[in-house]
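Hi team,

Filling in the usual template for the complex we talked about on Friday. All components are listed, including any nucleic acid strands or ligand strings, so the model treats them as one assembly.

SUBMITTER: L.P.
PURPOSE: interface mapping
COMPONENTS: two
RESIDUES: 884
SEQUENCES:
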Amino acid sequence: MIAHVAAAGERSGRVVLWLGGTSSASRFAIEAAMLLAQAFQAEVESLYVEDRQLFDLADFPFARAIGVSGGSWRPMPAATLEREMRFLAAALHRQVAEAGATAGVACHSRVVRDEPLRALARACAENGPWNLVIVGEPIAPSDGARLSELFEKVRDTTGAVVTGPLAGRTRGPVVAVVEEFERLGPMLKAAQRLSAAIAGEVRLCIVGDRRDELAWMEGEARLLCADAESGEIAAFESVLAANDDPAPLAEVLRRHKPGFALAQYGGRLIAPDASLRPLTQALECPLLLVR
Amino acid sequence: MFFKRFRSDKSKAAAAAETDAAPEAADEVASAAPADAAPADPPEPTLPLGAHTNASGLTDAASLGFKTTADVKAVAGPVGQEAALEALAFGAGVKGPGYHVLVAGPEGSGRHTAVRSTLQHIASKAERPADWVYVSSFDPTGGFRALKLPAGTAKPFAEKMALAIDTLADALPAAFAADDYDLKRRTIEEEFRFSREDALEALRREAETQNIALLRTPAGIAVAPVLEGKVVKTDVFNSIPEALRREVETKIAALEAEIEAILAERPEAEKERRARLLALNEQIAGRHVRAALDDLKSEFADVAGVESYLKAAARDLVRNAGLFVAREDRAGRLVQTAATHPRFARYCVHVMATTSAASGAPIVQEANPTYANLFGRVEVSTDAEGQSQVVRVKPGALHRANGGYLVLDADALLDSAAAADALRRALDAGEIRFDPPTSAISVAGDEVPDLEPIPLNLKLVLVATADGLRRLSASHGSLRRLFKAEAVFEDAIARTQETVDRLAGLIANIVEKYSLRPIEAEGVALIVDEAARRAGAKGKLSISIADCVDVCRAADHIAGSGTRDVVTAGDIERALRQHSPRTEAGDALSEAS
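RESULT (copied from the run log):
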């Protein structure tokens, strides 16, 4: 995990910016990649995956595509598809390179034709476990299964960063939503390193399903923070979540207006295969999901 | 002229020596005469005669009846121009439009002083005219409406409007940053965004059951036959029975039609989303805008046009609430109030005419009557997007004098033919229409904004010399015909007991006004003689007040240099000699020839 990188005091890692699929990448996803790279002294690999299945489809005589803004169906021959993908990849890579130059982050780019998650997994595997995947495309409420598949198939990553359709910020406090005590330390350190990069304060949100558990966690968190070497915690918040409803946590993200957020994948905020609607309705900043 | 004056002085000295009629005065004059004067010269036979003259035709200082001007009652204004003053008072006093006054006469004859004092007297008793302001019409033309406000209320109206804008600059960003607005906006956005996503997701699930997948491509969405989650290869697809292939193709076609239908709803849904967001913005902004304008609305409820203006302003403010929440504005407000920021120029109230509480009708004297100085000026600023907008409408003399008097100099007006023509048109039409002379080729964005004409009701007082009058008649006959009253100041007036006494009073007035040393009667007599000489005819005086002032001040300076407490005849004589060198030089030349 990148949080583990932070916990271990390691100074390096790699950010893989996963591009492909739709025609555009979120500007905030690219910004998030640069911020993480700055925070963890990492490089950014901009990976554009040409989905091989689309070329399989293009072989059919009836293969057609329609723009998301509507219009009419247009034939989708392989040559056209390939040309569009090349141009799109070049444009996205240029966008990333420009952002990297501005942020002073080293960026590399690559185009591969494969099944997307397999390509991502291979790219991560090539460079060891300290990868962090940034999903370039904003997530949709129905992307729960896709996200679950990402965590399942791409093993050599410490987490993934997603942006929502309402993304609009990368500046502001760093909010860490901690649901399990054993993740508190690493997540806190990751949040502190991020906060240095984006010049925002750290706000800690502790989630539990019992009051006594929450009180205990908060006490421990305060002790931990008192011992922490870098920075103070600007705010503590305890959220009593008696069930798996993600709404209270989504509300925390909405209320704090963070510039970056951290949460645990598979927790209440993002349960595997669950609808991402509560999250997409509240998420206005990049969200780092740790394993 | 020096030569002539010396001769007259010599004759005066000689006359004093020959007659014992006024020995004291004669002694004083003799002592004030230049040392090189020849006392034996005979009196000049062509000297003017009239009141207060002695046998030699010069003014008899002793007969003036005072020792110095300190003993004389000061008299203001021109001397012996009663007919002109009467005509001026009549013309200025006639009520109603179209009765303009032409004041003709030589320079220095006291025309301006007479005009000023006459108009002040009449205007102070007249009613204060209404105030006028220009406000944005808030229509696509970007023009301005003229609003007539009760006298003295234009400035408070403008200030309160500016205050309302300042208030909104604080209130609106806070309102739009509030959580309840954010939540409402988000709800609308999401409803729109996810309604389509939901429909596509439902379709995707339905397609999955039929082994068909919706794929995202760089160009948009595509539909493909799948088997176990993977797109079927063409060779596999071609190997299945044709009937099955046809069935799959039919299903794909049906799904494509459904996708097309879902996406086709987008423009309509987008329109609805915009409408709902607009309604929400209007709801939030409207509340604050109404509150900000409430005071203004109630205070000016009875003034025609104000309510409709405030309604239009409120509509525009609500529609453009985004202007107030732009981030850079916050920095801007550190150095200036929101109301003065060019971004909010359209809400600025431009005061064109107003009067103070103690004043009557306004009197405006415009020394440089160019078009801009008469009809006002519009200042345009270009914003960051390159859009030009009017930031200030400055009133001209016509606006300021509206309801009162406008005093212009004919020569200055005729120097600007375009201004004279425009002035004549404005007086003819009875309205101030901003239509400056423009070049046939202009730069985009330099268009003259449409300013609603303001009704014009003023009395024009045009002060002219004989030459100016000739130029006016020759080049602007139609303007000349607008003057129904004429006050003509004579070049020379009759030398009577009264006019000489009044001239002495005038000199006393100058002494008093400029805090000069008192002038001895002999000095005054010399000035009277100079006036007589200038008249060039017997029994006449030609009095230039301006020249009198110059001579008195110069003589005072000379007396001061000689540490005298009073100005003597000698001082006056030296001053007369030094006065008007151009004319003197001309005379000297003619003498030499």
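MY TAKE: Residues 2-162 of chain A form a domain with the Rossmann fold fold (CATH 3.40.50.620). The mean pLDDT of chain A is 86.

Thanks, L.
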